Amino acid sequence: MNEIKNISIIGAGFTGKQIAAIATLYKYDVSIFDINSEILMEAKKYITGVLKRKQKPELSNHIYYCNKIEEAVSNADLVIEAIPENIELKKKLFFQIDRIAPKNTIIATNSSSIPVSKIEEVVDRKDKVLNIHFYPPIPLRPMADIMRGTKTSDETFEKGKKWIESIGCHPIVVKKEIIGFVLNRMWHAARREALNLWAGGHADIKTIDSAWKIFTGMAMGPFSLMDGIGLDVVYAVQMSYYLESGELRDKPPDALKDMVDKGELGMKTGKGFYTWSKKK
Ligand SMILES: NC(=O)c1ccc[n+]([C@@H]2O[C@H](COP(=O)([O-])OP(=O)(O)OC[C@H]3O[C@@H](n4cnc5c(N)ncnc54)[C@H](O)[C@@H]3O)[C@@H](O)[C@H]2O)c1
């Protein structure tokens, strides 16, 4: 079994930069690419900051900020894509990576709700695809779901699992495909009910968050957590569940769609369910 040494991250947004940072901290050689060069530079600032805080600034030499996807994947053993939650975009990207990456490279998606089995048709290497799904902030939640496509080989699965462990994370093995994996499935139920309580006018967001925090002992309630994830991502994920089940209770509320359309996306835009200052 070839060892995984070089990691490529495609998409340097909220999750991509965190995966790149932790892989660099664990001494992998990491290449990262984003179609938006400003976001790539923001990711550089973030990753440099993480490495400094962890007193490993010298590891900055092990991360490469790439202007072209070809540069990012040409030497990769494992590519993880973290581009927006849109199946057509992801298929297009998998198709592209399949054509330009070395033939043994494993291609994984960090998607929160799309099983890789729904993407795999566009690649030839169907035995080398995976879902590897993180739960940012990764240092606070060191775990990742790992799930197969329909033809993923045992070797690919084992390599993925070992890699997750090698970066100090707990692999959550999904034995049989399901949308939302393990923890996200449970979190989906709580999130759906919180959204429906709010949109139905049964309780306001602070009440729902307080009840959750007191009961679970967690520092944040569902609405703060959704603001952290990004309401565009939350909306897209809820839509995936709805399209899968067809059940009305899974349909994301129109009020959430209105917020997304207005650009109220949560912490990343400063306003979502709550107003966020940079300091907060
Ligand atoms: N936000 C979360 O908490 C969270 C948690 C786990 C998984 N995810 C999943 O991770 C993925 C990304 O989510 P995010 O919140 O990081 O999104 P994000 O919007 O913060 O980042 C996505 C990035 O992808 C870039 N991009 C778009 N198309 C691209 C392409 N073709 N090539 C390269 N870069 C491209 C965008 O410029 C953007 O910077 C989604 O599939 C989401 O479901 C998100």
Task: Briefly characterize the structure.
This protein is α/β, with parallel strands linked by helices.
Rg on CA atoms, Å:
19 Å
Report helical residue fraction.
Answer: 40-55%
Uncertain spans, ≥5 residues at pLDDT below 50? none
Number of strands: 8
Compute the number of helices. 10
Identify the CATH homologous superfamily of the largest domain. Answer: NAD(P)-binding Rossmann-like Domain
**What name does CATH use for the topology of the largest domain?**
Rossmann fold
Strand order of the largest sheet: 3-2-1-4-5-6-7-8
Mean pLDDT across all amino acids: 95
Question: What is the 3D shape?
Answer: globular
Q: How would you describe the overall organization of this protein?
A:
There is one protein chain. This protein is an alpha/beta fold and 280 residues long. The chain has 2 domains: 6-173, Rossmann fold (3-Layer(aba) Sandwich), CATH 3.40.50; 183-269, Orthogonal Bundle (N-(1-d-carboxylethyl)-l-norvaline Dehydrogenase, domain 2). 42% of the residues lie in helices and 14% in strands. The chain has 10 helices and 8 strands. It has helices at residues 16-25, 37-53, 69-73, 87-100, 154-166, 183-199, 205-216, 222-229, 231-245, 254-261, and strands spanning 6-10, 29-33, 63-66, 78-81, 106-109, 129-134, 143-148, 170-173. Helix 1 packs parallel to helix 2 (37-53). The model has no long low-confidence stretch (mean pLDDT 95). It binds nicotinamide-adenine-dinucleotide (NAD). Residues 10-16, 33-36, 39, 82-85, 89, 93, 110-112, 133-134, 136, 229-230, 233 line the site of nicotinamide-adenine-dinucleotide.
